[in-house]
Design goal:
The structure is a homodimer. Chain A contains 17 helices and 24 strands. By secondary structure, chain A is α+β, with helices and mostly antiparallel strands. In chain A, a hairpin with a 6-residue loop joins strand 7 and strand 8. In chain A, helix 1 packs across helix 16, helix 3 packs parallel to helix 16 and helix 11 packs antiparallel against helix 12. The longest helix of chain A is centred in the N-terminal third of the chain and has 20 residues. The radius of gyration of chain A is 25 Å and the shape is globular. Chains A and B meet through helix 12, strand 15 and strand 21 of A and helix 12, strand 15 and strand 21 of B.
Chain lengths: 651, 651
């Protein structure tokens, strides 16, 4: 008999199948995923993009399956690119059927089945190139990472199609992993150098309710960073016969410097960290493990209050793609990997289900509209791996310490983790919008469309209409077959100073709990809720200890962070200053960058006509008025190479 | 019969033997060189400094001389550390006899003679470790660089002592070089990857008047960067059988990307560049080669007007220790190697002899009092290789892109080029102060002491008394056996807005030519000249294209650039702002940092009591008054680890 666990979840996300997006801002992105990104990335996985670095991803599986010859090419984690793409297609099929792509994925699953070994093992790098080295380098070799992405793809595909062939495939893989890794006698007590499988196992557990999956997840999380008395990475290193280059990294890089419950600061590789924290949150929630939850909350506060860019980007060091120290947030050498912003969204989404606090969803929204969306070009064909907050092409192109900064988006990458990651985020956007529990519907994000949710035994539909993020007016229509008593909880973003809510045109009483406006009543079919979020142009300042932003301001309107681009403001953006009395105004420009609201205002710049050739001078420079124009940060670099800055000097 | 060349020199430096320094600012440094640095560095060369990286320099020579066993240890250019030390001792002996050190150097010369091979070859790395690889990698292997430093040491030692054993030794070495390298059939048409021997050969030529030395120098300079049609570095690379890691560097790194006459911008490794430019200036002056001179002037303007820090530091990239692009001058990742500031002084010193323009001596002074002097601690036992203009220890200690920045001076370095270089600069300071020609005495630097110069057939003594750089008042007393007509040319620094000159208390007429106040008269024995240079605290701004200094000011008083240190101003220096009405005042503090003039003034900083934990906020922060205290940049990091910044935000 299975024990029913009391979880720590205050709500559950409304799944993709129950959410339909119909929104002026997001529709084009949704269309892009289906019509451009999925086909483009499929071509990339099949090495059909001219001029891009070859992927060899499909080819690797064909070789492993015995259908092609040669050696594995690419990264040790190349398989995961396919899995993330599969997950993207699965998400897309959840919201809209597409026989062609479904058939393609079915064929891919057949290919995977052929590539899978007898004992359940599946990883083309090792099967093809190094069959003798399986599970010998958990720290660096990404076998569990790839397995995690396959599990995620499998659960998404099953949820989209009901087809369980891929679930059987991953259950054979996980059974194999369980036979190799674990605390039992004769198994290796190892855990992944790149966390990912933890959160994937929690998805598989929630789907199947088979405890072996949560138990494996728990093993990986609890074992991490322990010394018994030896550190597992030292044990396997000795068994491998000594270090190679990757072994120069410290355990902080892998979040394995101490047991996770004792970790207080976000350390190391930022994607690994936030995938881990997401898995920790899932496990803690499911087990109602308050100590582990508290560890997640502590890590959260450190991440977002000390180590996050205003765009929601994280990871301020290109070297080791990592967090550094509190308040070290250089803009021109920000690493802020697209994947890290996405992982922050994933983590935030898990935390809000537990704590029902807008502080998580505010960050989720910040990363979504800024640091994640900047990872992809408006045409879906260019990607940023690194999302800096300042770019100076002349300097970035010559300085070695800026070598990861690309002034324009790239077609694809040798290490192509980010493009499929942004694709799966966009394809799965629906699941981030709503949550519910027995008596409440939470609205986390303002995205037009509809959802259907069961509350208090009644199926309730909620329709959302808005021109967000350009306008702060959101209309909801509720409908149900019978009047029903429940709560609609609307997030009032912390960036909003004045919010107003009416129901059927009348002001209503509501309580605000942790930033959610909770309107409880017996809702009638056709009731209208109007939420108005004031969104003037806001001048943002950083904590005074953020050295790189001292004396600088950023512009934000609603959830959107702005930047100045050379295309609108000329060169030498560092010379421009803004004042609090800049008279900022905003205006929607339908023709610009697929339609964006721009900010204009008065600033000043040095009177160039009076500047002489001196490098240093005791003169002060005359300044002249300068009309500035700011565009949303996510939309930068869609008009050729040029300077860009988010933070602008304050007069 | 030797042709008498007409040189382009407008004056000649007054040599060390004819200059005595007696100056409150410089006496302690001179004493430090003799009493601390020379012995300390001799211990370092002999591996007797506890806790410092071993040098093995003397040991290498002993091995090469057959007096010790083992392999060469250290850099391929390790020999040069000894040569620079020898040069330092020689300079020191020029101004003051010291039998012990003279005997030590004589013993070193005996050792060198034993280490020198039959054919004149002398380089311990190759003699000991790779005798088969001599002259096969001129691009990277520093054989000519080491030879250059030996030649410099030899000429200095000969000038100090009149002993020519070491001159004979180097002439055998140079004869060997001439037998191997050159444009003649059967020789390799190669030239050094690290320039240095060019300026050394010019010293040897000027000492011996033997044209073979200037001809070899000319060959090295003219051949550099040529394609005939192949680039020499490609030829030798092919002969070596292909590239290794060092061969990833571009030809710009070596200033070999094009013939030197065509080079317009300062490129590549900044020490190599400025050593080369110094040699080019020497050669051009000696040959009166206007085209080559013009190349030097063009490179000078680019260097000092586009690519130099306010401290006189050059080389803004740690990667390849190089120049980057115009106006790219990050303060926290400045490389600004001590050797590069010294090389800039050497180059400036050569240029002013040719063009008689203070623009060179102003830079010489800037680098001397700031970016060069910062390379050594006040006790002479700590050295900076890298001289950043901002240091944030927490960040510098963790960020990989700041890994060359050390928050405190080091005892010694594996690559120990800088410590002996700063020592030889200090020991040879006397030669930078005065120049003369038939009828003029130029005073470039204001350093107390005396010189004796022949002008218009008369021996003239000039005595200088001053408390410079802390005070701008300089008294000169001239004396000679008979009244003599000549010109005293005093540099009026460009930083000085008001200068006044009196002779015997009376205002005098003088012409100002290229920044030199020329007072021509029949001077009487005992005539007094008083020069008063106003030196208020000046607020310095950068060209608006220097991105890192936008909105910031630096403080300078006289030639001294100031900085804020945490020891005086607390943490978070980036939060401090200054205004033009800061009411700056200066005051000499005899007990502080061996006696420095400090600057105090009013600034402001964020009211820390009102700062909350938010990383980003729409609030503006209240600011409170802050009394700031600035110390001379060269004296920073003598009171433990802490923050430091030269550039401070302007209110």
């Amino acid at each position: 008999m299975q024990t029913v666990r009391k979880t720590a979840l205050k709500m559950q996300p409304v799944g993709l199948k129950d959410v339909k997006i119909d929104d002026p801002f997001w529709n084009p992105w949704q269309k892009l995923v289906k019509e451009a990104i999925i086909p483009y990335q499929w071509d990339a996985l099949n090495d059909r993009i001219e001029g891009a670095e070859p992927s060899s991803t499909i080819k690797n599986f064909e070789i492993a399956a015995g259908k092609s010859e040669g050696k594995h090419y690419g990264m040790v984690f190349q398989d995961s690119d396919l899995y993330k793409w599969m997950e993207t297609v699965a998400f897309s099929l959840s919201t809209e059927q597409d026989e062609t792509w479904e058939q393609t994925v079915d064929e891919v699953i057949d290919l995977l089945e052929n590539a899978q070994e007898e004992d359940g093992y599946l990883n083309t790098y090792f099967s093809v190139n190094h069959p003798d080295k399986k599970w010998t380098n958990l720290k660096n070799d990404h076998e569990l990472y790839c397995a995690g992405h396959l599990i995620e793809a499998a659960t998404a595909y099953y949820e989209a199609t009901g087809k369980d062939k891929v679930i059987q495939l991953v259950s054979r893989l996980v059974d194999h992993i369980i036979s190799v890794l674990g605390s039992e006698e004769g198994k290796k007590p190892g855990y992944p150098g790149h966390p990912e499988i933890e959160l994937a196992l929690m998805k598989l557990y929630r789907l199947t309710e088979d405890e072996k999956y949560i138990n494996l997840c728990k093993f990986f999380i609890e074992e991490r960073g322990r010394r018994n008395p030896e550190h597992y990475y030292d044990i396997e290193l000795a068994e491998r016969g000594g270090p190679n280059r990757s072994d120069e990294r410290t355990y902080e890089y892998y979040q394995a410097h101490e047991p996770v419950r004792e970790q207080k600061t976000a350390e190391g590789h930022s994607v690994r960290a936030t995938y881990l924290y997401s898995g920790m949150a899932d496990l803690a929630a499911e087990l109602n493990d308050e100590e582990l939850l508290e560890a997640c909350r502590t890590l959260w506060e450190n991440t977002v209050n000390k180590r996050m860019y205003v765009t929601g980007g994280i990871g301020s060091s290109a070297h080791e793609e990592r967090f550094t120290v509190d308040y070290d947030l250089p803009n021109d050498r920000a690493y802020t990997e697209t994947c890290a912003a996405i992982a922050l969204i994933m983590w935030a989404h898990r935390m809000v289900q537990i704590d029902a606090d807008r502080k998580y969803t505010d960050i989720m929204e910040r990363a979504l509209y800024n640091g994640a969306l900047s990872g992809i070009s408006l045409d879906g064909k260019g990607y940023f791996y690194v999302n800096p907050l300042e770019v100076w092409p002349h300097t970035a192109n010559c300085r070695h310490d800026m070598k990861t900064v690309k002034p324009t988006r790239q077609q694809w990458f040798g290490c192509a983790c980010c493009p499929p990651n942004i694709a799966r985020l966009l394809a799965s956007l629906g699941q981030y919008i709503y949550s519910s529990n027995e008596s409440e519907i939470y609205v986390h994000l303002y995205v037009g469309g509809e959802t259907e949710v069961d509350v208090n035994g009644q199926s309730v539909r909620l329709k959302q209409e808005t021109n967000y993020p350009w306008e702060g007016n959101i209309n909801f229509t509720v409908s149900s077959d019978a009047p029903t008593d429940y709560t609609v909880a609307l997030r009032i973003p912390a960036w909003c100073r004045n919010a107003a809510i009416t129901v059927n045109g009348q002001a209503v009483d509501y309580s605000e709990v942790n930033g959610y406006a909770k309107i409880q009543r017996e809702w009638q079919d056709g009731d209208q809720i109007n939420l108005t979020l004031e969104m003037p142009v806001e001048i943002i300042r950083s904590h005074p200890q953020v050295r790189e932003n001292a004396g600088k301001v950023a512009l934000q309107r609603g959830p959107v962070v702005y930047c100045l681009e050379q295309a609108d403001n000329g060169e030498n953006l560092q010379d421009i200053t803004l004042s609090e009395n800049a008279g900022f105004s905003s205006k929607f420009e339908a023709e610009l960058l697929n339609g964006v609201t721009v900010i204009t205002g008065k600033g000043s710049q040095t009177d160039a006509s009076k500047v002489e050739d001196e490098l240093y001078t005791t003169r002060s420079f005359d300044r002249v008025a300068k009309e500035i124009k700011a565009i949303p940060y996510y939309a930068w670099s869609n008009r050729g190479e040029g300077e860009m800055t988010v933070w602008v000097r304050e007069e």
